[in-house]
Design a protein that fits this description.
This protein is an all-alpha fold and 95 residues long. The chain has 4 helices and no strands. Helix 1 (5-26) crosses helix 4.
């Protein structure tokens, strides 16, 4: 079976939605505040929230997500979600 670009985009969209849900839950932040351009500092997303999110993602997707430059340099919700999604996808592809 050939994977189409539409399927891949749909899978990525679902993945990002799930990650956003986990960020909201683990960071105790209302989903409405997690706009793509929202600054992490403005929504009070702190390092302890990041640790909780990483642990929840590792449990949810059975992956290991290292804290690298893409995560530590993320300033907006969109950058954070994109980086986390990339880590999850790359880990799932290698399994």
């Amino acid at each position: 079976m050939t994977v189409t670009t539409a399927q891949t985009a749909s899978d990525l969209s679902k993945l990002k939605s799930k990650i956003l849900e986990i960020v909201a839950t683990e960071g105790s932040i209302e989903v409405e505040r997690l706009k793509p351009d929202a600054k992490l500092a403005d929504i009070e997303f702190v390092s302890s929230d990041m640790i909780m999110v990483l642990m929840a993602l590792e449990d949810e997707f059975d992956v290991y997500i290292p804290v690298d430059d893409s995560l530590s340099e993320a300033e907006t919700v969109d950058e954070l979600i994109g980086s986390l999604a990339a880590h999850v996808q790359s880990q799932k592809e290698t399994k």
